[in-house]
Amino acid sequence: SFQLEKKDPADAAVRAYLDIEQIVALAKREGVDAIHPGYGFLSESPEFAQACSDAGITFVGPTVANLKTFSDKTTARVAAIAADVPVVPGTDEPVTTEAGARAFVEEYGLPVIIKAAMGGGGKGMRLVRDMEELGASFASASTEAEAAFGDGSVFLERYIESPRHIEVQIIGDGKGGAVHLCERDCSVQRRYQKVVEIAPAWSLDPALRNKLHEDSLRLMRSAKYLNAGTVEFLVDGEGRHYFIEVNPRIQVEHTVTEEVTGIDLVQAQMRIASGASFEEVGLVQDQIQARGIAVQCRVTTENPERNFAPDTGTLSVYRHSAGYGMRQDGIGYSGMTVTPYYDSLLVKYTARGSNWGEVIRRMTRALQEARIRGVKTNIPFLLNVLTHPEFKAGVVTTGFIDEHPELLQVTGKNWDFANVHQADQEKVMQVEKLLRYLANLAVNGHPKELGANPARLRTAPQPQVKPPRVLIPGKDDAPTAGRRPGGWRSLLLAEGPAAYAKAVREHKGLLVMDTTWRDAHQSLLATRMRTADLVKAGAATNAALSNAFSLEMWGGATFDVAMRFLHECPWQRLERLREEVPDVPFQMLLRGANAVGYTNYPDNLVYRFCKQAAASGIDVFRVFDSLNYLENLKLGIEAAGEAGGFVEAAICYTGDITDPSKGKYTLDYYLEYARQLAQLGVHSIAIKDMAGLLKPRAAALLVGAIRKELPDMLIHVHSHDTAGNSLASMLSAAEAGADVVDVA
Q1: Which of 77, 164, 184, 249 is flagged as catalytic?
Q2: Half-sphere exposure of 744 (CA within 13 A, CB side)
Q3: CA-CA distance, 455 to 389, in Å (whole number)?
């Protein structure tokens, strides 16, 4: 991406995006071949398209002639009339004066709607029902159009009361050929901006649907339209349709069309702009049909109860509900700052289903399970819309929201959200703000602007807490009975992983792995302790865990958190802690082919990573895959083994093996998986119970079965105390033959 600069610092931020000269110059300087204008700013500007052409840059969109015809709604209207497409009575040319607007009203009467001549998206639109409102409405519409599109001209149309808004997606080849990709129902609108879009308009009369398709194709073919565009209509209560405009660009709601047709519209735009034919792109009319139904909801950072005033701030949590039939299009992330300078659209949710009821249930669930905190959003309002009886019936008009003001009432609406603090708008961010305030006090102290006096705070009486004394061998007069000289690590380094596994297996008694520095640290403190803080506990940890099997202290989330949140080098962290704890084997969590990341990495990278980890101090590699996918696990096992590490393969436990009716995850499933891991030559098998589902009886059954099947295999058990029975499960596992259990 490239940064655009404002010519005048006093200009609004959006002005830079309307600077044709700067954009084209930047594109030439950077060797850009093509520019896709998106669906805002200069996307409908013939001047921009011409400038791109003059500079030898491909404009991914219509021709300059197309834009001159359709970006101006008055010339688009003339083209529609010429193509015998029915239109609403309106001005034939842009209106630039209030007097011109009054002349139209005097001829055709009220109500009328004023629209920006050179753009869409609800910008520059005003409904006028009273002659006394005309002057102010004309002035505000013109000013808004000027700010949004760089052109303040408008046009007027007779206003049709409570119509449906139906649009047809078209792609043209620029030679007189065009295909339609079915239609969309965009009737749910607020301030003339679409809120919910549906494809196809499933409740539309089939005969009317065919007329809309035919009229759209006739208009676009007559204009020799190139690339993607949308022909928009109003349908009145009698089923009569009227052309209102062409949007000569891709639209925000194009996702619903993609979901039901299976055609990637943006990719098609790119390929057609590069010269591909319809046949090469796969755009054959007889083969294009809608399958199922898709709905899009626009999630915005607006407060419905304050007339949709935009909210600003930092996204403290940004997590979506995903799953089959759900799509998210957005750029949000935790930590993102939402500013007041641009459109409030944050993310588009698109749900797909085989029928209307299914798709509404899916979208409702996604909105309820979304976690977006830090700013107010319109999600409760969208839920009000989706669950309203009229909307669920499938037929609403553009007046739906205005006719139902109760849709805007979100306070007290206790939706079944995933998080209780999102259910009530009054509670949104309540706990978050308190925690942030306390955290800020803990790190930065009391703010001076509130009158805090740091000098006086330091003189306040402080409770004296005597820390426990830890006797460190070689430094303090510590007893050595029961301590293994050099710890278990001395054996591992001297004789290797296989000998270490054999010695632990022969050991009389249960060994532990301490997870304080990794898994417990992650679960309780989000891995936020800095290396300097852990170093202070290094010598004591080395002494306290001298007889431990290992200390889990690296891998998993620690690598990512060290870099992105603590701004520390994870490698230096490992090496520094290795110096402080020389006698305890260090264990890490390796996510198979994902290493310590969140995606699959090339094999050679995983091998090199494990080699460096071993060189920097890791002794034991616990390799796991959350789905028990053996091929993903296999790469990590081989890489850790080649690095000379002790390889422990994890079996991720879920379900309940004490209940055979639970389905896939039976005792036989886990036994077979253990056999496959043993065949890969691992030194140990870990039963990794990440959700705390391993009951005491299940622990005894599973460990006992693996011990019988693999008598020489070292068995290690990991659990979380989610249900409060982890200790009992560990003891049951030990009695059944486990060699090591995890503690913190």
Answers
A1: 249
A2: 17
A3: 63
Question: Does residue 696 have a cis bond before it (omega within 30 degrees)?
Answer: no
pLDDT at residue 425 greater than cutoff 60: no
- Residue in the structure block whose two tokens are 């009319």: 285
Q: Are 740 and 509 in contact (CB under 8 A)?
A: no
Determine if the peptide bond prior to 200 is cis (ω within 30°).
yes
Q: Rounded to 10 degrees, what is the CA torsion of 226, 230, 231, 236? A: 180
Q: Which two tokens stand for residue 385?
A: 């819309």
Q: How far is CA 484 from CA 289, 582, 717, in A?
A: 73, 13, 23
Beta strands in 24-177 (DSSP E): 34-35, 58-59, 112-116, 126-128, 154-158, 164-173
Integer Cα distance of 677 and 673 in angstroms: 6
638 and 671 Cβ atoms separated by less than 8 Å: no
Report which secondary-structure segment, H or E, holds 130.
none
CA distance linking residue 446 with residue 438, whole number of Å: 10
Give yes or no for a contact between 510 and 548, defined as CB atoms under 8 angstroms apart. no
Return the number of other C-beta atoms located less than 10 Å from residue 307's C-beta: 9
| Strand segments (E) across 280-366 | 293-300, 302-303, 309-310, 313-314, 317-319, 326-330, 337-338, 345-353
Helix axes 557-564, 570-580, angle to 10 degrees: 110
Tokens coding 394: 């499938």
SS3 210: helix
- Nearest alpha carbon to residue 648 among 695, 698, 600, 684: 684
Active site includes 249?
A: yes
**End-to-end alpha-carbon separation of the chain, Å?**
46
- Characterise 154 by phi-psi region: left (phi > 0), alpha (psi -120 to 50), beta (else): beta
Find the mean pLDDT for residues 661-678.
Answer: 92
| Residues ≥6 apart with Cβ < 8 Å to 142 | 96, 124, 152, 153, 154
Contacts of 568 by beta carbon, 8 Å cutoff, 6+ apart: 530, 531, 562
| pLDDT band for position 453 (cuts 50, 70, 90) | low
Contact 589, 548 (CB under 8 A): no
Quote the tokens at residue 228: 């993607």
Phi/psi of residue 96, nearest 5 degrees: -115, -5
User: For residue 444, what are its two tokens?
Assistant: 């930065």
> CA gyration radius for the chain?
33
Q: Do 39 and 17 form a contact (C-beta atoms < 8 A)?
A: no
pLDDT, one tens digit per residue, over 112-170 is 999 888 776 667 889 999 999 999 999 999 998 888 888 888 989 888 888 999 999 99
DSSP-derived 3-state class of residue 579: helix
What digits encode the pLDDT tens for the residues 240-251?
899 999 999 999
Q: Which helix (H) or strand (E) holds 558?
A: helix 557-564
d(CA 91, CA 75): 10
What pTM did the predictor assign?
0.58
Residues 6+ apart with CB under 8 A from 277: 173
Strands (E), 213-325: 226-235, 241-247, 293-300, 302-303, 309-310, 313-314, 317-319
Can you tell me the distance from the alpha carbon of 273 to that of 288, in angstroms, rounded to the nearest whole number? 21
3-state secondary structure of 140: helix
CB–CB of 478/543 below 8 Å? yes
Distance CA 353, CA 392 (A): 15
Helix then strand then coil, in percent of the chain rounded to 5, is: 40, 20, 40
Helix (H, G, I), strand (E, B) or coil at 742: strand
E strands present in 548-614: 550-555, 586-590
Per this entry, what is the length of the chain? Answer: 744
Distance in angstroms (rounded) separating the CA atoms of residues 174 and 220 = 9
Q: Whole-angstrom Cα distance, residue 541 to residue 577? A: 10
Give, as one character, the DSSP assignment of residue 674: H
At position 554, the amino acid (one-letter code) is: W
